[in-house]
């Protein structure tokens, strides 16, 4: 990274460290923006988020569809960082502890689920803060690649971004050195808690950029930055349930995503980044609306079929659990439903007869059953 990469419009300061490399220290938020350029994009995105808010608020069970959305987000956010696990791999791993994919990849994705669920629950007692980010990071990195890089702690040494094998001197981007990073994080947390006249979605775009520019962890910054967006959407009341995620959009446009973030740092290209971000919000809100409606329709159809044959309450409750996690074993069903093993086995066997569940291992013991229709809707690239 060289100072010539940055123009006078860069929203921060280029500094040369005592070690001789250059680093970028972003200025505190907010920058000066001309919001008139974003009226149409903002209106479309805000309308669709509002529509998704209404659908989420009308769900018969507020937690009914969160599981598939959280797990889809975990897969796609982790895929941006290079993991190869699919949603099918994840739910099978959660049900059995096994995977046909690289186990380390699936564990990273499972950790993302745990970190997100932890963060959302923690918001009940702890405000959005640096402390909460560190707690989520600790869970994200536990037992996986990067676990030796101070999980749960902000970095105490310099990091950088660039192709494999690059050094600090030829990196594409070098975030603030440690002392400046601490000051930047302090200002960042203050901005999180400050009142703002900016439209919430534009503020969210600024926050996401700023976190990535500070890059406060040695590993896992991208995933924590995307986790943070979900927490903000829920904590600030934009959505009552975590149903909107941008990782699918960022993953589809990965090169453009990184290019926009870098262009903000280098040239202050806020308008292009905000337009890109709002387009993603609109696209993923529409996707979430359609995916929610499909899953809700499937849920209603299953319940009608079960009631038509006068199914037991255990079977009805089991179907509810399948929408949270579409793969299950008999022992897991017994534990979650608080019934005996034979009762759980009977319920699962009945759902297999109705083609709601299908056994996925082909084994005589330690079987895993998958709700393939639910999984197909959750896993599909597009539901249009």
Describe the structure.
This protein has 384 residues and is mostly helical. It folds into two domains: 3-289, Fido-like domain (Fic-like fold, Orthogonal Bundle); 309-379, Winged helix-like DNA-binding domain superfamily/Winged helix DNA-binding domain (Arc Repressor Mutant, subunit A). It is built from 15 helices and five strands. It has helices spanning 39-57, 66-80, 87-96, 103-122, 130-141, 178-193, 200-214, 221-235, 247-252, 254-267, 270-308, 313-324, 330-337, 341-353, 372-379; strands at 12-16, 22-26, 327-328, 358-359, 369-370. The strands form two sheets. A three-stranded antiparallel beta sheet has the order 3-5-4, sandwiched between helices. The protein has a two-stranded antiparallel ribbon with strand order 1-2. The chain starts with 11 loop residues before the first strand and ends in a 5-residue tail after the last helix. The mean pLDDT is 92.
């Amino acid at each position: 990274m060289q100072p010539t990469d940055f123009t006078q419009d860069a929203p921060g300061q280029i500094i040369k460290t005592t070690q001789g490399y250059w680093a970028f220290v972003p200025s505190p938020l907010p920058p000066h923006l001309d919001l008139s350029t974003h009226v149409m994009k903002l209106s479309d995105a805000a309308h669709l988020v509002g529509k998704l808010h209404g659908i989420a608020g009308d769900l018969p069970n507020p937690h009914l569809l969160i599981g598939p959305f959280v797990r889809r987000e975990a897969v796609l956010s982790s895929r941006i960082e290079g993991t190869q696990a699919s949603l099918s791999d994840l739910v099978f791993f959660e049900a059995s502890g096994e995977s046909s994919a690289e186990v380390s990849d699936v564990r990273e994705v499972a950790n993302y689920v745990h970190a997100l669920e932890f963060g959302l629950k923690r918001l009940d007692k702890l405000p959005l803060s640096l402390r909460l980010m560190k707690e989520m990071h600790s869970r994200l990195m536990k037992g996986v690649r990067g676990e030796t890089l101070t999980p749960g702690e902000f970095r105490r040494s310099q990091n950088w971004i660039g192709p494999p094998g690059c050094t600090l001197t030829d990196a594409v981007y070098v975030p603030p050195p440690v002392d400046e990073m601490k000051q930047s994080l302090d200002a960042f947390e203050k901005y999180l808690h400050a009142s703002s006249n900016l439209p919430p979605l534009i503020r969210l775009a600024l926050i996401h950029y700023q976190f990535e520019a500070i890059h406060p962890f040695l590993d896992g910054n991208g995933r924590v930055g995307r986790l943070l967006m979900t927490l903000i959407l829920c904590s600030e009341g934009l959505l009552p349930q975590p149903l909107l995620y941008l990782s699918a959009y960022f993953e589809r446009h990965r090169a453009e995503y990184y290019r926009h973030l870098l262009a903000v740092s280098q040239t202050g290209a806020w308008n292009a980044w905000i337009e890109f971000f709002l387009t993603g919000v609109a696209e993923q809100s529409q996707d979430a609306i359609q995916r929610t409606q499909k899953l809700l329709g499937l849920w209603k159809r299953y319940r009608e079929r079960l009631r038509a044959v006068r199914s037991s309450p255990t079977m009805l409750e089991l179907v509810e659990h399948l929408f949270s996690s579409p793969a299950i074993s008999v022992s897991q069903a017994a534990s979650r439903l608080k019934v005996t093993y034979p009762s759980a086995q009977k319920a699962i066997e009945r759902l297999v007869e109705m083609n709601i569940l299908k056994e996925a291992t082909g084994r005589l013991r330690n079987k895993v059953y998958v709700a393939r229709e639910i999984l197909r809707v959750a896993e599909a690239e597009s539901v249009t």
